[in-house]
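Problem 3 from the worked examples.
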Amino acid sequence: MLDEARERGMRPEYADVKRGDLKDRLERLQRQAADAGMPVLVQIDGWECSGKGYVMTHLLRRLDARGFSVHVFDHLTDEDREYVPSQRYWQAIPAEGDITVFDRSVYTGLMNRLDLDEADDEARIEALAATEKALTDDGMVVVKFFLHITRKQQSKRIEEYASDAREVLISPHDRWQNRRYKKLAVRIEDVLERTNFAFAPWHVVDAGHRKQASIEVLGIVCDAIESALTTRESVAQAPVDRSYGTPPDILGEVPLDLALTDEEYDEQLGPLQEEAGALAYRLAQADIPTLMVFEGMDAAGKGGAIRRLIKGFDPRLFRINPTAAPEGKDKKHHYLWRFYNNLPARGRIAIFDRSWYGRVMVERIEEFATQAEWDRAFGEINAMEKEFTDDGMLLLKFFLYIDPDEQLARFDARAQDKPWKLTDEDWRNREKWDQYVNAMNEMIARTSPPNAPWTVVAGNDKQHARIDVLKTFIERAQQILD
């Protein structure tokens, strides 16, 4: 791809186009994308001193600054290393109708590393592919550029910049890269080819002439946005071929008669909480991030199970994330965005009281998401959780199940004793019990790979459920620590 760009030079379709005309065109397209609620992500990567800043400046010069943002993807910081690799990508994605430009890209680290082992390399690329597939499937325009210059051109620019009074124009990394140009060129070519996805291809631009490179980038961005605006409505309305059949009746097989006496419960609870607290501390010492998801029927006892689980935890080690319907910024981003903003750092614990699984349950049943959106979410969620576990995260998923009679009894009790915990929505969801159970069975069946299995908890007896959650956490924590 690099040699091809150098031999081709400027793409012929943009050779006679005036840069000012392209800027006017992009200005119009920005307004149209905003009106359509279409997010646009432009990643400008390339060799050091290849003119990324120059190209970016001319790309954005005439745009409404209220509708775009720039994120600099420099070398990883210590804070970046605390989280899964793709988190900073997700945190920086544009909201509906906005344009975001990455100065460098999430690929910069991969391109400039010569010491990654093969498994880690493959895992990172797999995660990036899943991310960009999820974003483009959701209607985001993703345009990726690599600005290519020769080693000789890079050396010349380094010397030019070194003589400039503005010393910030170059850094030690520029010279480091120039000294290793040949090895890095092989590495960059490999990364470009392996991440040249059909849904988010690379555009390698000959940047030997800065103005021509800026024209080419402007033209490609304009064409990409215009094409996406043209096809956006037809893609959204395209019929979905849903081949999945009837899910297995997983919840129907749950032994809901399991129960503990008060004496058995009291005897086990304290020691298990103490052991769980000690394991939470060991996970922190080992820098292992832990993420726990709690889903289940309304009134199944998720909150009570969480409270008993964390009783022995150091409160500095965990954070609970209650998940309600998305609002504000959350609603204007991809549905996974808000969850990536709340992942645990290494050695910390994040607990989600409801989670991204709402996409394939409530959003499915209440038609807040289209069939295409919730159906592809199964694959998106599996890919996301695979990145988590590939990165060494302890991931536990609990589904607390109760039968309709037990739920009604708990609703009636809440109405009497804790009316603030009972909502009209709870009653509406109950009326759709069979629909929800079908969706839940499919969810459990399709999102229980070996790396991220569901633990279905029999919840008719609250005491049994709480002990079951504690024992499961202890077992899984011991496994990952050993």
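Problem 4, a separate protein:
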Amino acid sequence: MSRQTRRPHALVVAYNFPPHAAIGTMRTLRVVRRLAEENWDVTVVTSDPGTYRAGTPVDDRLMARVPEGVRIVRARVVRGFDALKQSVKAVRPGGGDRAAQSSSAAGARPAAARGVVQRSIDFVDAALAIPDHESGWLVPAVAQGWAAVRANRPDVLYSSAPPWTGQLVARALVSLIGCPWVADFRDPWARAPWREDRRPFAVRAAGVLERSVVEGAQQVIFVAKGNHADFVRHYGASVAARFRVVPNGCDPEEFDQLKRPPLDPDAPFVLLHAGSLYAGRTPQPLLNALAVAIRAGIIDPRRFRLRLLGTTALSDLSAVSRDLGIEEIVEFIPRVARDESLRAMMSASALLLLQPGHTISVPGKVYEYLASGRPILAIAEEGEIADLVRVSGMGVSVTPSDETAIVAALQQIMRMAVGGVPMPRRELFDGRLGAAHIVDVVSSVARGETVPLVGGHKLAMQTTPVEKQGL
């Protein structure tokens, strides 16, 4: 079959892909589904579930959403260094080797030696975590990706990250294959404000690697205007001509299949945060405001629950709650399967969105919140998230530094839950529109055509209430 008549072939590189169930998986899955709908041959290079990191969310049911005919190439991650780290942790001070923690000189020497070993391990760990902790996927993914497509070379490569190792896999494969490349940045990388704990050499390395991706790709896509603006400032107007913003979204059909239950007037008000707490995404300002509201008699602790659903990498929030005297209203729920999480959103009285400290990213969770039909309390800096929540008509956004405003917002969101909120236009949160825009970019790049300006959600700043949800 000649090249003119064969179906176009897209190579997709993304560490997160079913059955990996992190929210970053969903954008790539939507793009793959759209490519298949438009009659593309699709090969996906992704990770092997056998080497996922501990605690990775997995949902085998997501595999049913991968179109038939999509070829999936799975590469394992080399994690040999992890075993060494665990061995060192087992004997470090504070671990099980109590004898070595003696205050005697004889006991201090082993402890000091272990301290040197631990610092060395930490240094090597930081080096091996360039660009991230999935760096052991780089060589296997490049090798297996190249073997999979060398006989049927793709017309274009699309990559989605984080993890950023995926962009380096894509960079290497593009060098081998010689095809054009579209790189999708779902988060900030080198200048991520929540990664200020990185060692200086790791920051410099991130900058060099990020630049190699930006300069190597024919098109670079961002999910957030703030991140796009940061890249424009950093790389300048000439490079920025290849940048596009395509906002994230969710899959509305997931919510269409679920029933939105009415609120029980006799049950406590439930403010739910669904998802992991990490990267400075802290509920501390809300906890402080809740303590103030309870002391002032604004909130009855018998009628209010803050439910934190998912994992947390933050300090001990239960201790913080106890110190504030509000431990009776704060509930910690372990991570659950995706469908259970969606049901929890639709069953909550209202939903909590936390994005303090920066404005350069928009979490995919906000679109799921919009699709749920429940009121949203956003504690976020002024910017894209705050605008989105307000324009939707579904919630309130306040800054984390304004405790008085947070207390007032709590009262407002509780009133909204009783009265019901208008559903925004579906286009505001429908991720299939974004996938269609990305595939338009991918198709233009594959054909060597001028890439049309992508409006993303031009209608994202418009919302027309079409129905009132009974809450």
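Solution to problem 4. Residues 9-79+132-245 form a domain with the Rossmann fold fold (CATH 3.40.50.2000). Confidence is low (pLDDT under 50) at residues 93-104, 455-471.
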